[in-house]
Amino acid sequence: MTLERHYDSDIGSTKDHACSCLSKRRVAVATLGCKVNQYESFALMGVFREKGYRLVSFQEKADIYVINTCTVTARSDYQSRQLIRRAWRLNPAAAIVVTGCYAQVSPSALEAMPEVTMIVGNSGKMTIPARIDEYIHGNGKIQVSSPDQSHGFAFHPVDDFPGHTRAFLKIQDGCNARCTYCIVPQARGGSRSLSPEQVLREIRRLARKGYRE
Description:
The protein is built from 8 helices and 8 strands. It is of the alpha/beta class. The protein has a 6-stranded parallel beta sheet with strand order 2-1-3-4-5-6, with helices on both faces. A two-stranded antiparallel sheet has the order 7-8.
């Protein structure tokens, strides 16, 4: 279980790089793992758009790279680290923000990577655009709270699913079981769900936007 930690002294020159590039406001988001992660990435991209950022492909040079990670297997941890290094090669001066389940359960492993600018846990994922601005003004590299500190179901509506003809709808998060082989409770906390009434409202809203599935 990871508790919230803020480090001001660990930032070093990476913070200076972030300060110099954020005014350009180009952001690229990469997603690993389940449909829940994919939905949250689409929601996060919507928040970035609202803040005036321009979304670009992860294959392009960006000012901010966000990697929404998975940690179900050692392979997914490795793929997350690969994406971090790929982002750094595309633009060594970019701010590289790592979030998702790998960031939630293993922030110290990511902190050891010099390419990483900021580590944000699952509960803070939608606040990343605001946290980037705060980071420039002195907040720390690791910003991970225990998922059990999240109360209720944090729902973030999504209007657009680029590259997909089907809409996604996140209706549940976390798990109350404690299976020895599964890391979901540590990464996402206890089970909580969207109400049936809100599920139906969202389905109707997405249908009105033209999504047939």
